[in-house]
């Protein structure tokens, strides 16, 4: 399947220009849409999911403009929104059964088989009879994926899925996403750089409604490799360093601060460090050139 986004723009009634003429192409596999809060990610996800309409531009799936075929898109779409409610008194099994019934599968035996497969796939089989209200954050997210996968969608959109998950749950969630992305388009929208580095072959950086990078994740890292330098400094020195260098990122390190700067040649007192996607991401959104 091929999903194309052409010149997509959206301005809210309060004047916020959430998307400023976005162009992108997606094919099977996992695509990471990375950007800080307010970048326009959810707006873009909701427009692709046909829950919102753009002011300008279009979305084309396999050559067909979705304006003409909203229902067709909904048939092939699975969507896990940023926050979604669950019915607290219903079990995972009952809820999935109901969703699959709504998808038009009337045969009870068929439904049971599909529900069991979804519960297996998302590691919820042991808690299938438990009420959703008693689920942990990670279990709820996995249930979210299960409901989004009901009907075997060709296009799956997940919006900020790992925020608030502990490392083990995050890992489990990653494994599920990576497994299911082999034969469909999965768009992962997130502000967590590591999620994109670990999972996505292709990515884009969205900032203030504009695409600042679009391409392969490895190429994104290659763009800055050899130009990132590191130094451990005292906390009270940070202001001076900000004045003298383009600091890409800084993080606490054993009570001191480890800074990364972007420079074409080695600045005095700094040591080379292998670039990570975080370096490229922060350099890009800070527009250091
Ligand atoms: P992200 O998902 O990257 O955090 P959003 O798409 O939620 O970004 O928001 C993009 C911009 O649009 C932000 O400035 C946000 O405040 C604004 N925005 C989002 N939804 C609305 C809305 N319904 N009405 C007005 N402004 C909105």
List keywords for this structure.
289 residues; alpha/beta; Rossmann fold; 2 domains; 6-stranded mixed sheet; 10 helices; 29% strand
Q: What does this molecule look like?
A:
The protein is an alpha/beta fold. It has 2 domains: 216 residues, P-loop containing nucleotide triphosphate hydrolases (Rossmann fold); 48 residues. The protein is built from 10 helices and 14 strands. The protein has a 6-stranded mixed sheet with strand order 6-7-8-3-9-10, with helices on both faces. Helix 3 packs across helix 4 and helix 8 packs across helix 10. The radius of gyration is 21 Å and the shape is globular. The chain starts with a strand and ends with a helix. The site of adenosine-5'-diphosphate (ADP) has 12 residues, from helix 1. Adenosine-5'-diphosphate (ADP) binds next to helix 1.
- Look at the structure and name the CATH superfamily of the largest domain: P-loop containing nucleotide triphosphate hydrolases
The number of domains: 2
Which word captures the global form? globular
SS-based class: alpha/beta
CATH first level of the largest domain: which class? Alpha Beta
Give the integer mean of the pLDDT values. Answer: 92
The end-to-end span amounts to 36 Å
Numbering strands along the chain, what is their spatial order in the largest sheet?
6-7-8-3-9-10
Small molecules bound in the structure, each named once: adenosine-5'-diphosphate
Strand count: 14
Number of helices: 10
**Judging by the overall fold, what is the CATH architecture of the largest domain?**
3-Layer(aba) Sandwich
Q: In CATH terms, what is the fold-level topology of the largest domain?
A: Rossmann fold
Please give the largest β-sheet.
Answer: 6 strands, mixed
């Amino acid at each position: 399947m091929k999903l194309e986004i052409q010149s997509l723009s959206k301005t809210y009634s309060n004047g916020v220009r959430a998307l400023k003429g976005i162009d992108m192409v997606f094919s099977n596999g996992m695509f990471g849409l990375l950007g800080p809060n307010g970048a326009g990610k959810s707006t873009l996800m909701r427009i692709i999911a046909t829950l919102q309409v753009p002011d300008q531009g279009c979305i084309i799936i396999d050559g067909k403009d979705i304006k003409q075929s909203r229902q067709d898109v909904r048939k092939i779409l699975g969507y896990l929104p940023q926050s979604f409610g669950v019915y607290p008194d219903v079990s995972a099994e009952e809820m999935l059964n109901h969703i699959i019934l709504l998808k038009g599968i009337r045969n009870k035996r068929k439904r049971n088989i599909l529900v069991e497969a979804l519960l297996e796939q998302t590691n919820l089989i042991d808690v299938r009879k438990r009420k959703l209200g008693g689920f942990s954050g990670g279990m709820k997210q996995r249930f979210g994926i299960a409901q989004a996968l009901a009907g075997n969608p060709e296009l799956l959109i997940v919006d900020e899925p790992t925020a608030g998950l502990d490392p083990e749950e995050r890992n489990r969630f990653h494994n599920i996403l990576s497994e299911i992305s082999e034969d469909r388009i999965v768009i992962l929208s997130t502000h967590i750089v590591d999620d994109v580095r670990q999972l996505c072959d292709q990515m884009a950086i969205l900032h203030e409604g504009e695409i600042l990078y679009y391409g392969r994740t490895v190429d994104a890292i290659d763009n800055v490799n050899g130009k990132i330098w590191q130094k451990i400094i005292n906390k009270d020195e940070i202001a001076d360093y900000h004045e003298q260098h383009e600091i890409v990122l800084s993080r606490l390190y054993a009570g001191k601060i480890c800074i990364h700067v972007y420079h074409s040649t080695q600045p005095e007192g700094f040591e080379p460090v292998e670039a990570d996607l975080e370096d490229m991401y922060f350099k890009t959104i800070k527009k250091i050139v």
